[in-house]
UniProtKB/TrEMBL annotation, chain A:
Domain GST C-terminal: start-end pairs: 91-220
The protein, known as: glutathione transferase
GO MF assignments: glutathione transferase activity
GO cellular component, one term: cytoplasm
Gene name for this UniProt entry: GSTU26
Cited InterPro entries: Glutathione-S-Trfase_C-like, Glutathione-S-Trfase_C_sf, Glutathione_S-Trfase, Glutathione_S-Trfase_N, GST_C_Tau, Omega/Tau-like, Thioredoxin-like_sf
Lineage of the species this protein comes from: Eukaryota, Viridiplantae, Streptophyta, Embryophyta, Tracheophyta
From TrEMBL, chain B:
Residue ranges occupied by any GST N-terminal domain in the UniProt entry: 8-88
Designated gene of the protein: GSTU3
Protein name: glutathione transferase
Any one GO molecular-function label of the UniProt entry: glutathione transferase activity
SUPFAM superfamilies the UniProt entry points to: GST C-terminal domain-like, Thioredoxin-like
GO biological process, one term: toxin catabolic process
Origin species: Pinus tabuliformis
Length: 233, 235
């Protein structure tokens, strides 16, 4: 009997990606909710001693951490077949494109977005400028790839789309926390086509919290951080 | 053997000093792939080709295969593994869990180890000690993995009998690591606290394909000195 657990917290953008990947593959898994504020559980510290953070995938007792590593693992441990979709395209080049964008989304876009919640002063000002630029960079990237979408590479979801799924519930939070507005469909048609398509998918809806819950949560968390970590978290 | 015309089909945009470029050179050499090296230069404006091939990050290395660019060194290494799957040794294990371990530690080098060393070299002076300590802590984590993880214990390299992706990810930085030790007058990989890691580094640096592409640590020191005098305005 296969045992699959995902250690997560409700707001974690990286955990949302892992949950979506598992659902897309049709894998039954248990969501294990970790503490969103300290202290961290022994279970978390044991399964991810290096980074001590969610998400962690535990497959038959063996832990995998860091979301991009988890996503690749999910693709390979449950390989594509007649009944199991692939999260990566066939050609080596297209695979490298999907990986490139997943990496950009995680390391740049999402990290910048989280700074909107956790940082103040000049760091915050820089983040609010950068996140809009990065949104436009993704639009340009999609256009350069040249497909009609709705996904990054075309009509199949791949790692890049899975990595970006947190934007679906987080977009209003980023806008509120950053006091900004992302460009609309006229300027960023592909990005909005992507958002519209993702919002409709049952696996996405199941893998992300409601946007309004998240907006309230992130606003509260930012106030908490401002009070207890005024230099930023 | 290289197919006819292959050299024209494979170009590597790089700076031979960059540890990230060194990674790709090692991977290409292991697979026996002929390529044309197109040199960018530290301290000089970036070329049109670089800006066009990597508009997002504007950084080397970029592998251009049949005119199509691949960016980010470990993504390039994976691409090389997949595009030339039947050629040369496998750079990654077959088992999905072992592949996850390989990706985890390669990412650790990029996300934790390199930034802490970069901070030691270029960060504010008063943070130097902290950056060095953080670098040592990061190396100790790798030492512990070598000691305790069943994937590595008792093996010659992270990849087993032959070098693999973690060896490439970490080993590509060998001269860079030595130059950071020299510049900061510290020991990052000491034989006493890190016997496995320092033995691994010695073995790695003696491999022929590595010796051919690994720069002299003194060259990094020259660049470091030049950058300290006139820091680059854009990366």
């Amino acid at each position: 009997m296969e045992e699959v657990k995902l250690l997560l917290i409700r707001s974690s953008p990286f955990a949302m990606s892992c949950a979506l990947a598992l659902r897309e593959k049709g894998i039954k898994f248990e969501e294990v909710h970790e503490n969103s504020l300290p202290p961290k559980t022994d279970r978390l510290l044991r399964s991810n001693p290096v980074y001590k953070q969610v998400p962690v995938l535990i497959h038959n007792g063996k832990p995998v951490s860091q979301s991009l590593v988890i996503l690749e693992y999910i693709e390979e441990a449950w390989p594509p077949s007649d009944t199991t979709p692939s999260l990566l395209p066939g050609s080596a080049y297209d695979r490298s494109l999907s990986r490139f964008w997943a990496d950009f989304i995680n390391k740049k876009f999402i990290e910048t977005g989280l700074k909107l919640m956790k940082r103040f002063g000049e760091e915050h000002a820089t983040a609010r400028k950068e996140i809009v630029e990065q949104f436009i960079t993704m639009e340009e990237g999609m256009r350069a790839i040249g497909s009609e979408g709705p996904y990054f590479l075309g009509d199949q979801m791949s790692l890049a789309d899975v990595a970006l799924v947190p934007l679906v519930p987080w977009l209003p939070s980023f806008e509120a926390l950053g006091e900004l507005k992302f460009p609309g469909p006229e300027q960023c048609g592909r990005m909005h086509k992507w958002l519209d398509a993702m919002r409709e998918l049952p696996n996405v809806v199941a893998s992300v919290p409601p946007a309004d819950w998240l907006s309230q949560y992130t606003a509260t968390l930012r106030r908490f951080i401002a009070e207890h970590y005024p230099g930023g978290a | 053997m290289a197919t006819e015309g292959e050299k024209g089909q494979v170009k590597l945009l790089g700076v031979t000093l960059s540890p990230f470029v060194v990674r790709v050179c090692i991977a290409l050499a292991l697979k026996g792939i002929d390529y044309e090296l197109i040199q960018e230069h530290f301290m000089h404006p970036k070329s049109e080709l670089l800006l066009k091939s990597n508009p997002v990050h504007k950084k080397v290395p970029v592998l251009i295969h049949n005119g199509k660019p691949v960016c980010e060194s470990m993504i390039i290494v994976q691409y090389i593994e997949e595009a030339w799957g039947n050629k040369g040794p496998n750079l990654m294990p077959k088992d999905p869990y072992e592949r996850a371990i390989a990706r985890f530690w390669a990412a650790f080098v990029d996300d934790k180890l390199f930034p802490s060393m970069d901070a030691a070299l270029y960060g504010p002076g008063e943070q130097l000690q902290k950056a060095v300590e953080e670098s040592v802590t990061n190396f100790l984590l790798i030492e512990e993995a070598l000691r305790t993880n069943h994937c590595f214990a008792g093996k010659v390299y992270f990849g087993g009998d032959e070098i693999g992706s973690i060896d490439i990810a970490l080993g590509g930085l060998s001269s860079f690591i030595k130059s950071v030790e020299k510049a900061t007058e510290s020991v990052l990989i000491g034989a006493e606290k890190m016997p496995l890691l320092s033995a691994w580094m010695d073995r790695f640096c003696k491999i022929d394909v590595v010796k051919e592409v690994m720069p002299d640590p003194a060259e990094y020191i020259s660049v470091w000195r030049a950058r300290m005098i006139s820091p680059p305005t854009a990366n």
